[in-house]
Write a structure and sequence with these properties.
The complex is a heterodimer of chains A (563) and B (173). Helices cover 69% and strands 1% of the residues of chain A. With 563 residues, chain A is mostly helical. Chain A has a two-stranded parallel ribbon. The longest helix of chain A has 36 residues. By secondary structure, chain B is of the alpha+beta class. In chain B, the strands form 2 sheets. In chain B, strands 1, 2, 3, 5 and 8 form a 5-stranded mixed sheet that branches. A 5-stranded mixed sheet of chain B has the order 4-10-9-6-7, with no helix packed on it. In chain B, strand 1 and strand 2 form a beta hairpin. Chain B starts with 11 loop residues before the first helix and ends in a 9-residue tail after the last strand. The chains are: A mainly alpha (563), B alpha+beta (173).
Chain lengths: 563, 173
Amino acid sequence: MSQSSAAGMDAAGIGLASMNRSTTLGGNAAGISLASMWVGFIAFAVAALLGFYQVIERIDLIPALKSPALYFGSVSTHGVLMGFVLTTFLIMGYGYYTATTSLKQNLWSKPLAWFGFWLAVVGVLLAAGPLLTGNASVLYTFYPPLMAHPAFYIGATLLVVGSWVWCLQMVVMMGIWKKAHPGETVPLAMYGTTANAILWFITSLGVAAEVLFQLIPWSLGIIETVDVGLARTLFSWTLHAIVYFWLFPAYIALYTLVPKAAGGKVFSDQMGRVAFILLLVFSVPIGFHHLYMDPFQAAGWKFLHMTGTFMVAVPTLITGFTILASLEIAGRLRGGKGVFGWIGALPWKNPMVLAAILAILMLSFGGFGGMINASYSMNTMVHNTQWVTGHFHLIFAGTTVIMYFAIAYYLWPKMTGRQLHSTALALKQLWLWFIGMLILTLPWHQLGLAGQPRRISSTPYDESLVQAWLPAEAAMIAGGAILFISALMLVYNLFKTHGNAQAETHLEVEYAESLHSVARMPKLMNSFGFWVMLVVVYMVASYGYPIGQFFLMETHGALPWSI
Amino acid sequence: MQDPLRAICDDPLERKWVWISLAMAFFLGGLLGFYAFANNVHPPSNVQTIDSTRLHLSEEFAEDNLGVKTNADGSLTVTLVAARYGFYPQRVEVPTDTQVTFRIASADVLHGIHVPTTNMTTMVVPGYISEVTTNFPRTGEFSLLCNEYCGLGHDAMWSRLVVTEKSAGGETS
């Protein structure tokens, strides 16, 4: 596409001008990708505001703000918006755009994609009613036998079913491409996206079973009680791998966009595939590290899941190596010398590169904490304390979400045909997010070690205990404020991009080439059939009996309770 | 012997790193396994059911039977009921350096129990009996608090654990 025709595109500012672009660029996915990501970022902005309110409420700073009803309603909404809405919509949008641009083919079915999108939007709106009116303050993990309004469970289900449409689309698109390109290697970006689609489908079956067979019938009065042990076991099926569903797009961007943005190549294409496959295989059957402290599963099963949890660290360690090696190649190509000289030579003023560096730093801190959480015995000291909140904010809100920002800054100009409103603002926003996240989460780790529970709206405990928490709590307010400002800067920058008079000229998504590449990719690293079978076998081994036991022993269901 | 990773990875440096990653995962998992089995340290995991709506009719969790009991071997058993919003009885006193087994049942929803700065913690799930064994090396008054969201009064759900010096005779001072 020539510069003049791009400049001549609709400048009305709604940004859907690129929908008609040729299939070699954004394909026909720009519209749905942009719409999906906007839903995600609007949810994100609302959730960031709620987060800021929560850090203030929690420390009892302003007595007039004190309200457990408001606080727990807010925490529930913050969790659902960040964990379910931002993630799912951003992943769908990025996935559609990655599929069309890396495969250079149109969406398999555009109407179906929009159907999935609207189904998910309706689900979110349906769940928003009870959430915002305090009728679903059961937190993001549902917590039966606390019971929410049925519309909350039904809305959440529609969101998940809408995302299954995306999963199907990704798998079919990869299949169509492989048929049209026999013997060729599926581009790494698409291989990762399809791995994530399959991972999410398998992952979401646990919570789907809990909601469809237990919570919805129970909340409608069709069944009287729920077995809380079974419900928590089913949720654990989803609870760990869902974070890999969120993290996957960050890894895909690290492998396929960052090396190019830094001016180099990805160190190894195959190791990216190995990492994606390991994540697919190991992240689902290990959910019991969320149940270490629960009474209804025997220790042996918990131990089995712990071993898998340590294995899932391997793909992340591989990713760390590959990305750092890729950045080093770029730094040296740019003239960096010596052991550390290449770091300074990197293009720090490129949002994608800056975000990647900050993401890896936060991943290192968060990964260290994660090893403690994963530990069969050490977890005891931090279970359900603020430490855990610190951990997942570092990995998810830090590493993962900062890469979502980078993806948005990179794709917005390509999707809208307009240049980014301000790169300088984007760089400031990324730095603020990093600084704010450290100020928020490092004190949280400390609070956790000092015994502060998570999920509390005030601290009415022994004075000696509470006094020790105050300095860290003051820090967390500063962190929350910085993060909220950073969130507003992101949304403002993306919004202003739509109306930018300057047309974007680099419309093609540039995927990194591999430094090391094999002539013929082994079949196992170019397909998923074998790996899906392996996951099924591993799942039966690690969840078969633990779920089956609830039907073999005499259990007593729990009656519903209001909050 | 040829490196089996050669099939998937061309670069010797990267293969070395993959081996290091695998070694770290196995070492850490193995270390935890060793301590778990050598010292018999396991997370609270007795799989035992109870009807939470009828705790008062069960012998163990009837009101009169709650609290601290001394077993024949000198260890203690503390029976607690967790219910919105407290742990009952609301004050528990135990000596230092004595094996204490807590047995806890919920009368209503999901709870968690934690004594901050100690390793006494477990989830309390309606329909199941939680059991956790520990001993307390330090004397003092501790908050025994609910660490799992259980409703709007969750913050207020805490009781007190008092750890006293173990007297020479092994009895509570």
